[in-house]
Amino acid sequence: MAVVMAVVSLVTAGGAAGAVRVEGWGWVGGAEKTVDAPGDLTKLRREAEKASKGLAEATKALERRQATLVKADKELKGKLAELQKANVELSKLRKPLADLVQSLYQAPSGGDLAPLFSGQEEGSLRALSDMTYLVSGRDEVLEDAGRLYQEQQKLAAQAQDLRANKLLVEAQLSMEIDTLRKRSASVVKTLTRTLVKLGVKVNAGGRTGAACDPTQVNAADEFPNGLLPVDVLCPLQQRGEQLRADAAIAFVALNEAYRKQFGRPMCVTDSYRSLGEQQAVFYRRPGFAAVPGRSNHGLGLAVDLCGGVDRFRSPQFNWLEANGKRFGWIHPEWAYSSPFEPWHWEYDPKLGSLL
C-alpha cells in the first residue's frame, strides 16, 4: 500500500502542469524556464550534472532492488519446493495407515477387527483399542496434512505479495529514471541552445551535441592524454579552439564576463593539444612545456591566453586572477614562477563542481 501511495503521489501530487516530483529535485518536467544566456551557463551545467547523477543513482537503486527481490523470490520458491517435497514424503509415510483405516471402514466385518463385530468380549476390547489407535493415526495424518497445506498457502501468498511489490517498486523507480532522463535531456538541450546563441558552433567538425554535454565528460577519461577524439571536445567561441565539455562551458561563461568588463572576448592562443602538438611544443620551447602525455592541455583542461592576460599584473591578468575561480578557472601556483607563464590557465574540475 505504501508503495502504491508513493507511485500515486509521484504522479498526481501538486505542482506545475505536467511536472513530476522527484526526491532531491522538486518539480521537474513542466514548462521550460526562460534562460538568460551568459549568466545561466554555470547553473545549467550544474543542473545537468545533478540530473545525470540522480539518474545514475536511481538506476543503481533499481538494479539493487531487482537483485534483492529476485534473491528473496528464489528463497521463497525454494521453501515452497521443500514444503511440497515434505508433504509428499509425509504422504508416503502415512499412506499404509491411511489405507488400512479406509479398508476397515469399507469392510468392517473382516480382518483383524472381526471380533469387534462378532460379540467376543476379549477380542472386542483389543479390536476396539486397535480401531481407536488407527482412527487417531488417521486424524494425525489429516492434521499434519492440513497444517502443511496452510503453511504452504501462507508462503504462496507471501511469494505473490513479493512479486506484486516488486512490480510496483520497479514501476516507481522506472518512472523516476524516465523523469530524470527527460530532465537531463531537457537541460542539456537548453544548455546547447544557449551555447549556440553565444557563438559556439556545437556541431562543427563532425561533432554531435554530446561533445558539449557536461554529463558525458567521463567519456574523455577513457582516452590517453593528447588522444581525445573530437566527439568529446567542445569548441570554444574562439575559432579552432576546443576543450573538454565542462571546461569549455565554464570558459564560455568566463569569456562573457570578460567581454562585459573589457569590451572584447578573451584572446586564446592554445587550448587542447594533441600528443603530436605537445611533442612539437616541447621541442620548440624546452622548459616551457610539460612532458608530452602529461600536459593539462592534452586533457582539454588548459588554455594559453593573450590580449593582455599574458602580461603579468596587467589589468586583464589581475581581473582574471580575481574572477576566474568563480568559473572554475585558476592560474596554477607553478605558473607564477617555475616556469613563469602568466598566459597559462587551467580549469579545476573539483572547484568547478562546487560552483
Automatic annotation (TrEMBL):
InterPro entries per the UniProt record, alphabetical: DD-CPase-like, VanY-like_core_dom, Zn_M74/Hedgehog-like
Superkingdom of origin: Bacteria
Coiled coil feature spans: 41-89
Entry keyword annotation includes Coiled coil: yes
Pfam family, one: VanY
Keywords carried by this UniProt record: Coiled coil
Domain D-alanyl-D-alanine carboxypeptidase-like core as annotated: residue spans: 241-349
GO biological process, one term: proteolysis
GO MF: peptidase activity
Name assigned to this protein: Prefoldin subunit 5
